[in-house]
Amino acid sequence: MPLAHAAAMIDRQATACGELGSPLYEFLLRRAALDVAEGGPCAAAVAGHEDAPGPDAIALRLLGGVHALVLTGRAPELAAYYPSAGGKFSRPVPEAAWTAFRATVADHLDWVRGWLTRPPQTNETGRANLLIAGLLHTLADAPQPVRLFELGASAGLNLLADRFRCEWSGGGLGPADSPVRLTDAWQGPPPFPVDRPLPAVEFTERRGCDLAPIDPRSAEGALALRAYVWADRPERAARLDGALALAAVHPAEVEKIGAAEFLRQVHPAEGTLTVVWHSIMRQYVPAAEWAQVEAELERLAAAATPTARFAHIAFEPSRAPGSEQRRFVLTVRSGPGPEQVLAEAVPHGLPAWAL
Fold first, then answer.
1. Which of 102, 155, 230, 339 to pair with 40, CA 20 to 30 A apart?
2. Neighbours of 270 (CB within 10 A)
3. The dihedral of CA 291, 297, 300, 305: what is its sign?
4. Dihedral of alpha carbons 49, 52, 155, 260, sign
5. What are phi and psi of 204, to 5 degrees?
6. How many CA atoms are closer than 13 Å to the CA of 226, on its beta-carbon side?
7. What is d(CA 315, CA 128) in angstroms, rounded to the nearest whole number?
């Protein structure tokens, strides 16, 4: 049954890829799911990882490992169908693309299996749109210098969110010359006041944590990040390239440590707003660990004062009781107050719409 479960999870991710505008990955994952069920090379690749946390974990790790081979020139036949490597494909996707994918997995099985041990590093820069919106909502009536702490920060790219340019019909924020452009960020007005000047955001500290942090300035780190971007979504690749350029000049500190242990080091500070934020990482954290994270967040909320404030900003999946359908929502909690649901977006963050 483990392989049958893995096949079902891969097929489920195929549906998600199709819905999110990746016909190439939808096609390849449909075939990969069948290959797993039939005991082919993809079954050998995922063997032993069938119960990896998160419904997308197996599929994204498999795709990431193969994409890294394409990007480094070790899968030229498959690269012919990968736009990220200069290739093209027609619709429907030709069967030859699957033949090349399957052969690549078979020929580089040890490499692909190595990627199955890695957590998916999908800290998408488009999600910064939601995070910075939550911060501006929090600062709107009481601007203060910000101390920023990110959970599951990966390479720390979204710790640089204030250096990204967000644009929507009738408005925008962030440096006009930023190499990261988040266009069509909002459908309708964003969830922070736009009828008056936006508060200036001053960061006095910015740090993150991750169990497997990536150095975006290294060739290996940049390859890992690029490999997890879907091969037929050039706009996501362009945003990542821009963020890598920023990180080369403004590297962010990401500590190799668990989220709960990281938060134990954090305390509200007088005259500042202490912010903990994260995006699409909770599903990868074991339940026992997340319970400790929530306890630390409660501690920080209880310790906050009007002059030493605290906010928790999250863009994470949400599922109504009894429902299988996930929504991806931006929530903000200021101090000990109630959590507010401010906005909803597609999983990669763009576009978003206020609620």
1. 230
2. 8
3. negative
4. negative
5. -95, -15
6. 24
7. 9
Query: What pLDDT digit, counting tens, does each position of 239-256 carry?
Result: 999 999 999 999 999 999
pLDDT at 115 over 70: yes
Helix axes 219-227, 57-71, angle to 10 degrees: 120
CB atoms within 10 A of CB 155: 27
Statement: the pTM of the whole predicted model exceeds 0.90? yes
SS (H, E, C) the chain: CHHHHHHHHHHHHHHHHHHCCCHHHHHHHHHHHHHHHCCCHHHHHHCCCCCCCCCCHHHHHHHHHHHHHHHCCCCHHHHCCCHHHCCCCCCCCCHHHHHHHHHHHHHCHHHHHHHCCCCCCCCCHHHHHHHHHHHHHHHCCCCCCEEEEEECCCCCHHHHHHHCEEEECCEEECCCCCCCEECCCECCCCCCCCCCCCCCCCEEEEEEEECCCCCCCCHHHHHHHHHCCCCCCHHHHHHHHHHHHHHHHCCCEEEECCHHHHHCCCCCCCCEEEEEEEECCHHHCCHHHHHHHHHHHHHHHHHCCCCEEEEEEEEEEEECCCCCCEEEEEEEEECCCCCEEEEEECCCCCCEEEC
The closest of 152, 58, 155 to 112, measured between CA atoms, is: 58
Distance CA 156, CA 247 (A): 8
Distance between CA atoms of residues 351 and 339, nearest Å? 22
**Could you tell me if 292 and 257 are in contact, meaning their C-beta atoms sit under 8 angstroms apart?**
no
Residues 97, 93: Cα–Cα separation, whole Å: 7
Distance CA 56, CA 349 (A): 17
Q: 343: which strand partners? A: 330, 354
Using CA atoms, how far apart are residues 241 and 244, in angstroms rounded to an integer? 5
pLDDT at 322: 66
